[in-house]
Structures are given as structure tokens and as C-alpha cells.
Amino acid sequence: MLPHFCILQPSSKPYHLYLMPVLYLKHADIDLEQWNAVVALSPQRQVYAMSWYLDVVSPDWEGVVEADAAGIYKAVMPVPWRRKLGMRYVQQPLFCQQLGVYALETSIPPATYQAFTEEIYRRFRYVADYHFNTDNQLPTLPRPEVQVEHTLTLYLNLCSSYEQLYTGYSRDRKMNLKRAQNAALQIEESDDIEPIIRFFKEETAARIYGGVAEGAYEMLRQLYQVLKEKGVGKLYYTVDKQGRQNSGCLFIFWGGRIVYIFNAAPQHGRKQNGRTLLIDHMIREHAGQEVLFDFESPDEREPDILHFYKSFGPEVKPIPVLKYNRLPKGVKLMREARMRLVRRLRG
Q1: pTM of the entire structure?
Q2: Are residues 171 and 137 part of one domain?
Q3: Which tens digits make up the pLDDT trace of 74-100?
Q4: Which residues, 6+ apart, have CB-to-CB distance to 178 below 8 Å?
Q5: 61-94: buried (b, 16+ CB within 10 Å) or exposed (e) per residue?
Q6: Alpha-carbon gap, residue 321 to 312, rounded angstroms
Q7: Which residue range is the domain that position 125 belongs to?
């Protein structure tokens, strides 16, 4: 298939136009070495877009690539696809809050976003949700049925001293941190992912509509193994005076960011504020460094969690979300009826 071409407009030469091939590649055709180099060197760099991360959360993922005449990758965009009832569609994977375009240039031209999304549009009739990254600025897209909504995450820049960062904590957060310290909780690093999975199953899974499939836990296990192998994942638990693990947090350290990727606590741990202590520990340990702490915040549909994360004083950052539905009318109506039911049950 012949490549599309993207018309670029460099900021240094506002009226100069040139052509850059944009290719849609199946998984087997992607040069993974080039792909990972672009992601790692891009100003937008995030661990989610590295090939070894995608291999876990979206096996057989595909990609859109912008390359020069010599075939050297200049920008990449992962495409996580799934299949249901024989139909291929795009959906954001678990444990992967952001994707989007990663380029060697800080400023990505609108034409690049348009060309990349057009490649998706040509191949998929349905995009349930595709999250770009917080550094992506999507222009108005020419397809009227393509929607760009927004969710959010929360970033805390740790470049200031701990004392300065602590002043950004809410009054309640400072109080709960003091309670955790007075409870004499101890922090221990571990390589056993099972307790945090058990906490989640016992205390959180039942509150999620539709439950949580066992495959999600298996994916987390696989992801943790890969993160350990790459030396970028650390798992911590708090332990109370009785020797019980009472909260757990998994963090990813990559590309100048600390990602708060997964956490859980049993009932007694929730009362003792173990997760507050662990987040504060990360902030304290990395204060004064050029590091961004990413809370991987939920959207407004989870107000309690959002309030908890905001109590540490982070900045709200919007995430563009691409959606469209070009399915046959009958299929579309069934899906809309199902979504109305889901929203009603969620209250």
C-alpha cells in the first residue's frame, strides 16, 4: 500500500512545505529499535509507548510511523486494537493511561495529527477511546463524526524542595500523614505482587461495574515481571505494628517520571493511611530533582479518588481522547442502549 504524505510546516520557515511519508505498519513490520529510540528521545516520552510495555498491555499492537526518505522514523503513534464479533476496533488498554504521537520535535504540526488520525480512520470503523498524551495538542479534525473529548491526569513537579512541596498538601492530607507516622507504619520494598492484587480483589473490584476479569490480574503480573526485568518498577508495602501489610503501591520510574501505576489497601490499611505515607515517601525521596510524579488520576467520575490525589497539590493536565463510531446503525443503537444502562447503574 502506498504511504500517505504529511505536509509539515516548520516554525522556523512558516511558508516552507515539504512532504514526509506516513506509514501504517502491522506489528511484524515495525522496526522496534527505531520505534523505541523515537519514544525515548521524544520530548513527549512515556513508558507506555515503549514496545516491551505495549507487548504486555496490547499484544499485536500496530503503529503509524512518520519516516523520512531514507526510512528513518521521525514520529510514531501506537495503535492498540482488539477484536470482537469478528470486528477490529481501537480501545485504550489497561495500565496504559496515555499514548498518542511521540516525535523528535517538541512542536508537532497539526498536519501530523491529521495524517496519523486519518490512517486510523481508514482502517477502523470504531474507536471506543484512544488517549493521546498530555503533550499532544490536537487540532480540529476534518472528519465531523470524529470526536475529541478530554479526560485528565495530575502531575506534581518534584523540582522544589520537600518543604516547599509539603506546603502544597491540603490540611486533611497533612493530618492523615501525621496519623500514618504516629501509627509507626514501616515501608518495605517487595517483589511479591500477590498481596496488592489480593487487596484489590477484596476491597475494590466489587465496586467496579461488571467486575474485573481474571485476565486483568494476569496482565498486571506480566507487566510487573517486565518492569522488574527492565529495572524500572518498584513495589512497596506499608507494614503495621502487628506485622500486617496494610497498603501497597507499584511505581514506574522511567523517562524522568514516576508513574503511580497501581495501588490497593485492605480495610484496616485504608484507615491507617498507608498509601498517603507511601506517596509522601516518593515525594520526599525525589524532591529537588527534575522528576514529574504522575498520579494517573481518574476522571471526574471518581470524585473521592480525584480529591485524594489533588490533596497532594498537583497540577491538572488534560488528556485528549479520540472517539468515533461508524458501525452499522443497528449495532450502534445496541451499544448506545448498553451505555445508557451502564451510566444509570453507575448513578
Answers
A1: 0.88
A2: no
A3: 999 999 999 998 899 999 999 999 999
A4: none
A5: bbbbbbbeeeeebbbbbbbbbeeeeeeebbebbb
A6: 26
A7: 4-143
